[in-house]
Amino acid sequence: MQQENSEELSEREREVLQKIALGKTNKEVANELFISTHTVISHRKNITRKLGIKTVSGLTVYAILNQIISMEDIS
After folding, report:
1. What pLDDT, in 10s, does the model give residues 30-59?
2. Which of 28, 39, 40, 56 could anchor a disulfide with 24, C-beta 3.0 to 4.6 Å?
3. 44-54 in b/e burial notation, b at 16+ Cβ within 10 A?
4. Cβ contact 22:73 at 8 Å
């Protein structure tokens, strides 16, 4: 995983990734960011395409390594 990839993500994609990495569902992410579930799904598609990571566990590891979330954030 390359850390330069995190620069490709928009601010909103980083917010969505943060919530996904913390185990939120698409509906929870949508409610917390005041966007539609469809928009969350679009962001998820863009994130997985940009990063080449398809699993939630992979995205979580990426988010930790790139300081999008910290180990303390994970319950």
Report:
1. 999 999 999 999 999 999 999 999 999 999
2. 28
3. bebbbeebebe
4. yes
